[in-house]
C-alpha cells in the first residue's frame, strides 16, 4: 500500500518538525498537521518564519520549502482525519495531575480523545501511528476504542516512537540513528509496518529501519529515555564527589568516555536535566513497574529522578550559602531559561526550580534567554503555584539585553548552555557588578582561569573550589 495522504494530530515540538521533514523528503505525500490550538496553527502558518511556535535550527528553511506545497497546518481535524490513509497521533502525554497514578502515570486522556475522534470520523480503513510516547500496552487500548465503534472500518495500530532531541531535531530527523516501527505480527500488521517503512525509506537506509512487535517498540522509547537520564544522574552524582575531593568532573567524564564500552556522549555534568520527556517517562516507567509489583525495578529508576532533584536543590543551596547565607534583596542574574540550548522549550527546565528556590529566599532575579519569551517565563513560575502571580512579577524581571541583565547583580547563574554566553565581554560584565562578583556556572560553560583572572569568584559544577 502506497501512502499518499498523511494526517498528524498535534502540532507541537514533535508533530511540527517531524511532519515538516516527512513533507520535505516525500514531495508526493500530502501531509496535514492539525491541532485544536488555533494560536499554534496560526503561528505555523505565519508568513514571518521567526514566529514559528517551535524554534529549531534549520526548521524555518524546511517549512519555507514544503509549506503550501505538500505541507499544511490546519485546525480542521475531522477533515484531515477523513482524507488521510495514515494518521499519526502526536499529542501531549503529560504526567497525571489527579486521581489514580497522580504524579506518576501518563495522562492518556488526549490520546483517548484522538482515538474516539478518529473512530467517529473514519469511513475507510486507516493506519494509526502512535508517535507520542506511551506506556507499554497502550496500543491495545486504542485498538479497543477503534474496534468498537460499529462503522466497520479496519484499523491497524503501529508504534513509531520519536527519538529526536530538541535543539537538534532537524538533524536527527534527516539522519536518524534508527527508526523504530512496532506492529502486529499478522499479515495485515506486517503490511501496515511496510507501508510506514516505505515512507521513511524515501530518505532513511533500510538497515536503520527496525521492525518489532508493538510492545517492544512502546517499551523501547521509555527505556531509551530512562538510560539517557540515568547517565546524566550518574555523572551528576559524581560531580558532587568531585567537588568534595578536588577531582574535576570534566576530566573524569573524558577519562571514562574514552572507554568504548561507556562512550563519550551524554556525560556532561550540569545543574540537572529538564525537558518534557525524561522525568515524565521515567515516572511512567516507575508506575508501570509498581503496577506489576516490581518494587526493586521501580526504586532503581526512581532514584534517577531523586538524584536530579537533588542536583537542582544543591545548586541553589550553594548560591545562598556562598552569598553569606542570604540572598534576600540581592540581584541574581539568570543567563538562560530554556531546558537546553537551541530550543525555546522550557518544560521542566532546571532554571524554573532554581528560580523558585531563590525566590523563596526573597532574591531579586533578572532573566535573559535568547529564545524564550517573557510570558513563557512567568507562565512557568505561575504553574508552580508557590506564590501569587503578582509576587512573581515583582521579584523576577525579564530582560532582553544580557549586559543589562547582569548590571548591579551580586551573582550570575548560568542555567542554559547557549553558545553566545561564551562570547560575551566578561570584563565589561564584571565591571558593572556588585563585588565580590560571583558566577555559578551550572553548565560548565566558561573558562575558570579566564573568569578568575578578571576577578570573578567562579563556581563550576563538579570542580572543587
Ligand atoms: P506538545 O505539547 O508540544 O504538542 C502536543 C500538541 O497536541 C499541542 O499543540 C496540543 O494542542 C495538541 N493536542 C492535544 N490534544 C489534541 C486533540 N485532541 N486534537 C488535536 N490536537 C491536540 O508536545 P510534544 O513535545 O510535541 O510531545 C508530543 C508527544 O511526543 C509526547 O507524548 C512526548 O512524550 C513525545 N515526545 C516528545 C519529544 C520532545 O522532545 N518534545 C521527543 C520524543 C517524543
From TrEMBL:
SUPFAM superfamilies: 6-phosphogluconate dehydrogenase C-terminal domain-like, NAD(P)-binding Rossmann-fold domains, UDP-glucose/GDP-mannose dehydrogenase C-terminal domain. It catalyses: UDP-alpha-D-glucose + 2 NAD(+) + H2O = UDP-alpha-D-glucuronate + 2 NADH + 3 H(+). The lineage of its organism: Bacteria, Pseudomonadati, Bacteroidota, Flavobacteriia, Flavobacteriales. Belongs to the UDP-glucose/GDP-mannose dehydrogenase family. It comes from the Bacteria. Keywords: NAD, Oxidoreductase. Residues 333-448 form the UDP-glucose/GDP-mannose dehydrogenase C-terminal domain. Pathway: Nucleotide-sugar biosynthesis; UDP-alpha-D-glucuronate biosynthesis; UDP-alpha-D-glucuronate from UDP-alpha-D-glucose: step 1/1. The keyword NAD applies. The keyword Oxidoreductase applies. PANTHER family: UDP-GLUCOSE 6-DEHYDROGENASE, UDP-GLUCOSE DEHYDROGENASE/UDP-MANNAC DEHYDROGENASE. This is UDP-glucose 6-dehydrogenase. Its EC number is 1.1.1.22. Pfam families: UDPG_MGDP_dh, UDPG_MGDP_dh_C, UDPG_MGDP_dh_N.
Amino acid at each position: 500500500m502506497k501512502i499518499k495522504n498523511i494526517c498528524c494530530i498535534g502540532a507541537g515540538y514533535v508533530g511540527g518538525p517531524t511532519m515538516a521533514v516527512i513533507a520535505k523528503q516525500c514531495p508526493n505525500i500530502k501531509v496535514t498537521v492539525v491541532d485544536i490550538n488555533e494560536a499554534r496553527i496560526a503561528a505555523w502558518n505565519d508568513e514571518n518564519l521567526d514566529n514559528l511556535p517551535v524554534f529549531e535550527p534549520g526548521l524555518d528553511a524546511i517549512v519555507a520549502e514544503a509549506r503550501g506545497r505538500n505541507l499544511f497546518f490546519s485546525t480542521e481535524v475531522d477533515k484531515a482525519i477523513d482524507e488521510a490513509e495514515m494518521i499519526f497521533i502526536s499529542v501531549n502525554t503529560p504526567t497525571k495531575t489527579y486521581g489514580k497514578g497522580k504524579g506518576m502515570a501518563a495522562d492518556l486522556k488526549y490520546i483517548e480523545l484522538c482515538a474516539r475522534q478518529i473512530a467517529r470520523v473514519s469511513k475507510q480503513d486507516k493506519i494509526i501511528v502512535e508517535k507520542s510516547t506511551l506506556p507499554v500496552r497502550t496500543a491495545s487500548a486504542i485498538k479497543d476504542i477503534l474496534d468498537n465503534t460499529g462503522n466497520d472500518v479496519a484499523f491497524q495500530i503501529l508504534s513509531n516512537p520519536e527519538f529526536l532531541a530538541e535543539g537538534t531535531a532537524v538533524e536527527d530527523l534527516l539522519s536518524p540513528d534508527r527508526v523504530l516501527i512496532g506492529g502486529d505480527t499478522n499479515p495485515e500488521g506486517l503490511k501496515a509496518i511496510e507501508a510506514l517503512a516505505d515512507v521513511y525509506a524515501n530518505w532513511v537506509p533500510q538497515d536503520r529501519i527496525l521492525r518489532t512487535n508493538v510492545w517492544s517498540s512502546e517499551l523501547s522509547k521509555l527505556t531509551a529515555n530512562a538510560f539517557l537520564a540515568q547517565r546524566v544522574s550518574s555523572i551528576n552524582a559524581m560531580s558532587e564527589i568531585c567537588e568534595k575531593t578536588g577531582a574535576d568532573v570534566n576530566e573524569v567524564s573524558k577519562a571514562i568516555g574514552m572507554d568504548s564500552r561507556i562512550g563519550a556522549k551524554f556525560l556532561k555534568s550540569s545543574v540537572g536535566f529538564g525537558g518534557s520527556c525524561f522525568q515524565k517517562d521515567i515516572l511512567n516507567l516507575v508506575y508501570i513497574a509498581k503496577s506489576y509489583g516490581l518494587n526493586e525495578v521501580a526504586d532503581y529508576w526512581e532514584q534517577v529522578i531523586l538524584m536530579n532533584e537533588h542536583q537542582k536543590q544543591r545548586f541553589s543551596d550553594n548560591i545562598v550559602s556562598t552569598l553569606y547565607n542570604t540572598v534576600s534583596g540581592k540581584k541574581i542574574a539568570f543567563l538562560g531559561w530554556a531546558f537546553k540550548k537551541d530550543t525555546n522549550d522550557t518544560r521542566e527546565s532546571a532554571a524554573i526550580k532554581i528560580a523558585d528556590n531563590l525566590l523563596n529566599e526573597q532574591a531579586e532575579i533578572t532573566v535573559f534567554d535568547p529564545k524564550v519569551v517573557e510570558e513563557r517565563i512567568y507562565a512557568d513560575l505561575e504553574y508552580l503555584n508557590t506564590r501569587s502571580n503578582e509576587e512573581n512579577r515583582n521579584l523576577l524581571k525579564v530582560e532582553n539585553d544580557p549586559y543589562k541583565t547582569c548590571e548591579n547583580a551580586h551573582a550570575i547563574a548560568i542555567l542554559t548552555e547557549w553558545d553566545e554566553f561564551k562570547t560575551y565581554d566578561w570584563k565589561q560584565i564584571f565591571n558593572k557588578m556588585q563585588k565580590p562578583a560571583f558566577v555559578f556556572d551550572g553548565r560548565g560553560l566558561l573558562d575558570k582561569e579566564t573568569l578568575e583572572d578578571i576577578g570573578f569568584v567562579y563556581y563550576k559544577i563538579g570542580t572543587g573550589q
